[in-house]
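Researcher: Here's the sequence for the chain we discussed earlier.
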Amino acid sequence: MTFQSSVGKLSSPLKDLVLSVTQNGSVHVGKQEKDEREVIEWIAKIEKGDLVNEPGLKTLDTQLVPHTYLVNNYLTAADVALYGALHPTISKLQPTQYFAHPTVTRYFDHIQACAPVRTVADALAPAFAPVVFDFKDAPRAERKVEAPKKKEKKEKAADTPAAGTSKAADPPAQAAAAPAEGQSQKKEKKEKKDAGDAGGKKKAAAPAKAAAPDDGEPVPSMIDLRVGHIVDIMKHPDADGLYVEQIDIGEETGPRTVVSGLVNYIPIEQMRNKYLVAVCNLKPANMRGVKSFAMVLCATSKDGKEGGIELIQPPANAKPGDRVYFEGAEFADATPVAQLNPKKKIFETIQPGFITLDSKEAAWVNPTTKSVHKIRTKEGVCVAPTLVGASLS
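Model: Thanks. This is the structure I predict for it:
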């Protein structure tokens, strides 16, 4: 089945909505063949009508928990089709009813606010008029806390920790830093074992492996900083202090979903359409049901959060995706690590040296040599709007 034939089975005005947003090129059918197949599959499900009844909404509420979009990490025709199919049902729900489906409500509100969707939906009014949700009075979500998993005996230290001790922590106010999770430790052990087997019978002729790019002392150039542009933002439906942003960092796959803990420090009006600096090679993290694929770099007042938090701003002529680097011959032309290994705590080691100078310029100060390395793009140095002596994270 082709995309056109699948959309052709939809009834108007839903069919008109999907065709309009895809024909003008503002929304993709799928940037890859695999994505296009998934889009077509979703539209076939939507055409059957089973997703918009009560059982379908319950199923969707579970399926959408880890997702911002249906396919991959960018807006596609499948999202437009689902939004349009849900509209007649969602628009008639009372607060108690749509609060019963918090993830569907969050998803629907996000898609209806996306500029390409809103433009066409307004042109087809009143069929797809904006639906206003009363998020202020939303009940707090009740979450089950899973019992901590038992560690393997060989991983336990001599001092056994108290049973029930949890390592979970709330996300930092500045941004959605990735948690220290992952499975790289076994891989590293295997690589070390393979390297030490040079005298074995089967591996005697194998050449030595190149050192991993994050081996050695952590240096700031391992961190992948890029210019980002907030193209969409909403409050997280399940967390009062979090924003969910769509940030364009110049990638062909579209904007990245980023969760930032800035609600209590920067009003949403001051976040919209902002250019910023994003940390792009942290491990993705689930933040209250929404996966975050980067971190927003912010300056926190030397007097603490109460003294103010500001977005670090790139130079005026910077564009999404522009490389942000550290001045200095040893850093300026270095290539960042593909993804920071949370076990090595590279960002955490470097972060204490991040600061804003008296000029409000962002910089990293080497704790050993005290040399100053400003954070910049090819267009100029990145700055905090007002904060001096602020820490960056």
